[in-house]
Amino acid sequence: MTVTAAAPPRSPRPAVSDQDLRSLLLIRHFERALLRLFERGVLSGTTHTCLGQEYVPVALSALLRDDDFVFSNHRGHGHFLARHPDPDGLLAEIMGREGALCGGVGGSQHIYHQRFLSTGVQGESLPVATGVALKLAGTGALACAYIGDGTWGEGAVYEALNMASLWRVPLLVVVEHNGIAQSTPTSVQMAGTIAARAAAFGVRHHHIASTDVDEIRAGLAPLVDAVRAEPSPLVVEFATHRLGPHSKGDDTRSPEEIRRVRESDWYDRYAEADPERFARIDGEQRDLVERVVAEVSARPAAPAASAALATPSPEARP
Amino acid sequence: MTRVSEHLNQALHDLMESDPSVHLLGEDVSDPYGGAFKVTRGLSSRFGSRVRSTPLSEGAIAGVGAGLALAGDKAIVEIMFSDFVALAFDQITNFAAKSTSMYGRPVPVPLVVRCPTGGNRGYGPTHSQNPQKHFIGVPGLSLFEMTPFHDAGDLLTRMFELARPCLFFEDKVLYTRQMHDTGDLFRFEVTDDVARVYVDGAGPPDCTLVTHGGLVHRTLDAMRALLLEDELVCELLVPAQLYPVPHLPGLEDAPHVCVVDDGTEGGTWAAEVATALYPRLWGRLRRPITLVNSADSVIPAAPHLEREVLVQAGHIRAAVREALS
Ligand SMILES: Cc1ncc(C[n+]2csc(CCOP(=O)(O)OP(=O)(O)O)c2C)c(N)n1
Ligand SMILES: [Mg+2]
Question: Where is the Transketolase-like pyrimidine-binding domain (chain B) (predicted)?
Answer without folding.
Answer: 2-177
